[in-house]
Amino acid sequence: MYVLLGSVVWEESVKLLLPKLSTTNIIPILIVAAVSKMSKNTHKEVVLYFLQQLLASLLRRKDCKVPDVDSGIRQLGQILFSKKALVVLDNLDQSSCSEFLARYFSLFSVGSRIVVTTRDVNLLNQLNQVHVDIYMVDELGEVDSLKLFNYHSFGKVTPPANLENLSKSFVTYAGCLPLALKVLGSSLRGRTQDEVFWKAKLEKVRKILENGIMEILQLSYNELNDDTVKSIFLDIAFFFVGKYKNDAFYIFQSCDYFPEDGIQVLLDRCLITIDENNMFQMHDLIHDMGCKISKSTRLFLREKGWEYSKNQEELHKIEGLILDLTQYDKRQIDSQLFERMPNLRLLELFNAHNIKGHFENSLQELRCIYWSNCMWTQLPSSFRPQKLISFHMPSSNFKMLWDDPRPFTSLKILNVGYSLNLKTTPNFGNSKSVTELYFRNCENLRKVHPSIRELTGLQVLDLKECIKVELSAETLGQSSRLRYLYLGYCSNVRLLPKALGGMKQLEELDASYTAIKELPDSITQLKELVHLKLEGCEKLKKLPEQIGNIVGLRIFRASFSAIEQLPDSFAGLVNLEILDLRGCKNLRNLPNSIWKLKLLQILDLGYCSKLKRLPNELEKMQCLEELNASYTDIEEVPDSIGRLSTLRVLDLSFCEKLKDLPGSVWNLTSVTHLNIFQKNIDRINLPDEVKDAKLVTLALNCDIILWLPVILCFSSLKDLSLDGSESSSSTKPFSLSKLYNLRYLSLYICTKLFPELPLGITRSSLNDHFTLVHLPDLSSLKKLKEFGYLSLLQP
Fold this sequence. Notes:
By secondary structure, the chain is an alpha/beta fold. The protein has 16 helices and 31 strands.
């Protein structure tokens, strides 16, 4: 583990590094400024959130909910058991997370690395059980500081001649602090001809210098000329950091803040950022500054603080309230508090079980509520905030939300996911503006109210893991604006909507692990569909004949389904990048024209046990990076495979009928991961080009002595797994010491002679045919950290 102490602008550098790791066997995970935003939460909530962030990054999902810490730990262990990971945690300030890292560091396989940045050296004391390298981050140098300032001021690293000296002065007064340089530079952009303005701004910076960085940052806020932009900034700082932009956008619109312009202004000024998950983020110092400015109108209270809150006149001004009852025994509050806040727009409750009283004279301005684990079984009849836009009450005790239509005419987003007792969706008769519905993992949800068909603006419907929900072919009506439909693991769903073809804007359809037997032919009309998930559909045997008409499709996942063949039109999916058919045990062949998928990057055919052959014209799939044909029935590999110039991963393990490999395989100098755990593969002569191969991982089942010259050619090898045939049990010794880069070695061979190892080896695993008697003196292997036994892959 590596820990960087201090503050430095390095996030962009990390983001540039991570894509390069896709050419290795390392899983990159970046969690930027996520952990530090959890200071209002309990230890358990912080750890659970941290786990979910790790799993979401590992699984390449927008989010990954787990019910509890134990199940999250199990899932994390299963994923990381045999894979190395690089985890980057920016700005760690939660002891809960450092405790987690110390306790569960063993989950990460050898070779994994965790990089942490923090300003709190005391957090490192909890990591004393793992190896930690600590680095103090140096300040940004004067030259680099000037480049950073110029980039944000002028869009280039060199300033105009007339502003060169002024630029240097700004850098001097900003103290080479990257955040101050970034914010100051952004505030001057577009004023390159106004030298008078620059001098006036510099004078302001000089005057506030003694108050430090916070005042310099506030200068950028003070210069926001539009009050609506200031309101957007303060709302984000107080309430929306780490929340989805869409959620806030609707609320800003309802308050006449004009977010189309205001959000862009804040982005241009570098006061906010929007991450890859479309969530608002903000540097901690800017966040602190925003919260300080907003404290007269936005209130954060803990425990019994609400009982002793401000006087009536001050409460009248309150627009936002965050209330944390974690340490409050009663876990309930009195609704009279809200009567004293007539202008309340934003409300978030932590660990509150109940609100006592009625709401007839309160919450008239409420736009948004976030409240998890509510103990209400139904919304009180007096709860009728007519301006409500966003309703987030997941993991609650609801059996139903409401029966008769509520006057929620402005409602856009409803999220009650993980409410395990919910049995029906509400009546949307008066809520026809809804655009997003989230009922994920409401495991007792059975009925979808027919009024859902009236939601003509619906864009997101998430019913994933609603294992008892029943849908008819007419349930959703036209839903012509629907973009995301999640039905995964709805095991009672037997039919997809009849009018699926009318959902012209649909981008993602998840019908994995449902009971569907067929796809409606109308699905071929979905030109905008990008991602289709049919994994685990054990009754789905065939696809529509014209499925190739879905020309926008980029990802097709149907692993462990009952699909028997792909239609000839499948080759019409010319934009397809990922084709996952892993575990389709009834699949016998692929269309001859499959080579037309020229943008395909990943082809996974592993465990297709009846698949007889690979496509003959593989060389035409010039974007292919990963090919998995393990555990298939193939007897040969086409020679054309050697012309796949971008192939990085090739897995041909345990193909029992495969007796040899074409020599062209060794022309694949781009391959970094090669797995041919296969008996009776004859050794072949290697072409000269093999010296240029950048093989990092190699797994072989072979006669070790026969193949040893081949293995030793791959000087870049870091991870080697060997399983030997019977002749490998000879007493002839062998050496791997020339593999200078080798770090991990697994031996399944039946021999009593242990090989000579390179000095850089850090981990070695052996099968139980070795005994301690057979082991040589390993004291020279100074970097060896793990040495153990494993079971044979094939007993």
